[in-house]
Design goal:
By secondary structure, this protein is mainly α. The chain is built from 14 helices and 2 strands; from the N terminus they run αααααααααββααααα. The protein has a two-stranded antiparallel ribbon. β1 and β2 form a beta hairpin. The two termini are about 20 Å apart.
Length: about 350
């Protein structure tokens, strides 16, 4: 086990290859995750600790991974390339912390809400707990939502404005919703304290690494938001008033491995219809908008605007385009696999 971890830290492109090449490849050949729980099963699954445990465990592992990796980076000399790759991996792992936090902050349980909100300190993104619940879930699919992209909008154009606007809107929610009073002030203080703790433990370079991995985790989160609702707009029925949120306003995916890695985040339509429903009880129906790939592959594809538009823009207006879109994604995935395999082998052999 120690040898495995040592190899992954010295040859981190292996982890990138596993995540973006091996997992999607395996996912292509196994049965799609289309089974939905019955009402009886939903009742039995509610508040079951066996479903909570993976969430709590991941939060603990994520924090341990952060401290371990920061310590490795400041105490060793992994080189510029490996440092960049390790921070990218750490940021990606940290974005999973945001996925878990997203699941928990939607719950009424005080422990879940606490963990969901305060685990985001390490991402410097606690305001997301306010804006996501009180802004995104209300305005999704409209121009009022900072993270809902219209058709033809590239991710790079929406990313920074989305981050800034969500922060501003969180302050607005605090001012207008009594139960949120003072929360943003406390979140700001807590995140400053987190930076001071990191500085005390790992020095200036460790703090820089910490901020970089937090930024990367935020970028992963926002590309997820971008993918989840790209081009699916709610009709404006009167000035400032929009049609009700429906399953047709979110993209879904049924790729099994990624569905479990992301705690059923890919069943996103049902999440917006039933925001308090636990991940194990989310459903997907045949008429829900379906991506031609897993969320994981879509996150990468969205970074290449022309390729993303080529796959998605026709699919938005025509469900029958799905087989063509799937083939185009496979072509993208093949090219990505070739590049990452060459790079991974080169690092492994050097």
């Amino acid at each position: 086990m120690e040898h495995i971890f040592s190899t992954l830290f010295q040859k981190p492109l292996i982890a990138i290859w596993i995540l973006f090449c091996l997992i999607p490849l395996i996912d292509e050949f196994i049965v799609k995750d289309i089974k939905v729980p019955t009402p009886k099963e939903m009742k039995e699954n509610e508040n079951k600790f066996s479903f909570k445990l993976p969430l709590y465990t991941f939060i603990a592992l994520d924090w341990l991974a952060m401290f371990f990796t920061l310590n490795y980076l400041v105490s060793s000399n992994p080189g510029i390339l490996n440092t960049i790759i390790l921070l990218y991996i750490l940021g990606g792992f940290g974005s999973m912390n945001l996925t878990v936090a997203h699941e928990l902050l939607h719950k009424d349980n005080k422990l879940d809400k606490f963990l969901g909100t305060y685990s985001m300190i390490k991402n410097l993104y606690q305001h997301y707990s306010l804006e996501h619940v009180f802004g995104h879930h209300r305005h999704v699919g409209t121009p009022l939502d900072a993270v809902s992209a219209s058709k033809g909008m590239p991710f790079d154009k929406i990313f920074i404005p989305a981050v800034i606007n969500q922060y501003k809107q969180a302050w607005t929610h605090e001012q207008h919703i009594p139960i949120l009073q003072q929360k943003m002030y406390w979140y700001t203080i807590q995140q400053m304290m987190m930076l001071l703790i990191i500085y005390f433990l790992f020095g200036l370079m460790g703090t820089i690494y910490f901020v970089v991995q937090a930024f990367i985790s935020i970028r992963f989160l926002e590309v997820a938001n971008y993918v989840e609702h790209y081009g699916l707009r709610r009709k404006e029925i009167s000035p400032g008033q929009f049609e009700a949120i429906q399953p047709k306003h979110s993209w879904n995916s049924n790729y099994s491995i990624v569905n479990y890695i992301l705690f059923k985040l890919q069943r996103h339509s049902d999440h917006h219809i039933h925001p308090f429903r636990e991940y194990q009880n989310l459903v997907i129906e045949p008429d829900y908008p379906l991506l031609p790939c897993s969320y994981l592959t879509a996150f990468n594809l969205a970074n290449f605007s022309n390729a993303w538009f080529d796959v998605m823009d026709n699919l938005i207006d025509n469900k029958d385009y799905l087989p063509t879109a799937i083939q185009k994604v496979k072509n993208f995935q093949q090219k990505q696999t070739i590049v990452l395999t060459i790079l991974g082998l080169a690092q492994l052999l050097i």
